[in-house]
Amino acid sequence: MKLRIGITCYPTVGGSGVVATELGKLLAEKGHEIHFITSSIPFRINKMYHNIYFHQVEVNQYSVFQYPPYDIALANKMAEIIKRENLDILHVHYAIPHAVCAILGKQMSDRDVKIVTTLHGTDITVLGYDPSLTGAIRFGIEKSDVVTAVSNALVDQTHDLIHPDKEIKTVYNFIDERVYRPVDSSELRKEYGIAQGEKVIIHVSNFRGVKRVSDVVASFNLIQKEIPAKLLLVGDGPEMTVVCRQVKELGLNDRVLFLGKQDNLEELYSISDLKLLLSEKESFGLVALEAMACGVPAIGTDIGGIPEVIEEGFNGYICKVGDVEEVSSKAIGLLSNEDLHRSLSDNALETARTKFHSKKILGQYEQIYRDLV
Ligand code: GMT
């Protein structure tokens, strides 16, 4: 049965925008009609799909209002699209503002559209501590028809922090394995000046404080004392200046490559031996899954959903937040043992292709939609 599905996300925020967009694309490929209701075109829609539509939320600035009324404009646009396109489902990513806007939009439309809300983390693990917002988050969750979260850890955290009277189902994230796969990009090693025998460690993030990129650099500093290695830092964000200074102070300028924001990450992962994700908050860690799908084992921290993606000793290692000695000793052990590395790399690929396979996750979302309509 073909469904008409509206999707709202922050199109450019990061993992949540990526997952929402990829889900829309896969649903469209299965024949559903997809209506993105967002403030700009989701950034990964890079080809024409005849059954994907984009409805832009226009937010005007009026001198009488101190803040542009995004939430109201979004709810208004949702109501318009629910009615005009006769939506069956409105799937929103983030409890606030998007679930709350969806509830208002549904009331305004006077149609029985079903609301599915997916929690990605920031709305709970950051905003959930703000008493001025918890009531609205709880309302958004309780009034949604179905609520999902991207890891078991996030389900538990949401219950602990927000106490909603609502079941929350775990539906893991996924990646498009047609894109994230081992590719032959070995010429990049030469272009980046990576010598034969040098190991490549990669970190990808938006360089927010929670990503603890300084721990990545500190761990790398210890690793490169034992093993010839280069660190690829991919992305940009608020902590970049601090990280640049740290790299200079440690005398690592010729070993750390700042690549900025990049597309085609599969090419960078395919020349990498190890991924580091040392965040202090991370409800899932989509970038770890992206790396694993390219055959790169990962070392992550023991927080949030990371241990559900990276399994200690199987496809990578888990360390305590801030323990750069533990990270470096596990990294050195892995990078200096070829057989061990090959086995973790194979297991990383297997994890991406089984536990988190896009078909499996897509099926779970489709089941949720079908049960509702
Ligand atoms: O981590 C970020 O800075 C971006 C954030 C977002 O809202 O896009 O990512 C969250 O959602 C991703 C997709 O579900 C998860 O992979 C990230 O772990 C999660 N980030 C945090 O929980 C801090």
UniProtKB/TrEMBL annotation:
Q: Where is the signal peptide?
A: none
Instruction: Provide one Gene Ontology biological process annotation.
Output: bacillithiol biosynthetic process
Q: What is this protein's name?
A: N-acetyl-alpha-D-glucosaminyl L-malate synthase BshA
Occurrences of domain Glycosyltransferase subfamily 4-like N-terminal (ranges): 13-177
Instruction: Indicate the segments forming the Glycosyl transferase family domain, all copies.
Output: 186-348
Q: Which InterPro entries match?
A: Glyco_trans_1 (IPR001296), Glyco_trans_4-like_N (IPR028098), Glycosyltransferase_grp1 (IPR050194), Thiol_BshA (IPR023881)
NCBIfam families documented for this protein: thiol_BshA
One GO MF term: glycosyltransferase activity
